[in-house]
Amino acid sequence: MPDYNMGRATGEVAITYDGRGLRQAQADMAATGAEAAALDVAMGRVNRSFDDNREKSVASAEAIVKARGEVEELRKAYQRQQTEYEQGQQRVNEAMDRARFRYSSVMAWTSAPAFAGS
Questions:
Q1: Is the full-model pTM beyond 0.90?
Q2: pLDDT of the chain, 118 residues: tens digit per residue
Q3: Alpha helices in the chain (DSSP H)
């Protein structure tokens, strides 16, 4: 490549600057900061709401587990009582059968010809 020497230049350079864009950017950044602060407050409320809901969900789940245990105990108690009832009913039926047999035996004995003729 060739090497050219153009000499020396002197003079003034005038730069004009319009700062409207910078001022607008600064205003936008300040507004963004305010919006970010408001968003932070709102997110804090959302997080507290999530925490409250989580705690309530845990409490509800614990209550469901407890209630399920209580229902299971009731089911077992019902089965025991049902079994006892059925056993009692069986004993009553057997007693009624014995009583009917005795009554029919007594009736047959008292209506027998040997007894009737006495």
A1: no
A2: 667 777 777 777 777 777 778 888 888 888 999 999 999 999 999 999 999 999 999 999 999 999 999 999 999 999 999 999 999 999 999 999 888 877 777 666 666 565 555 5
A3: 20-110, 113-116
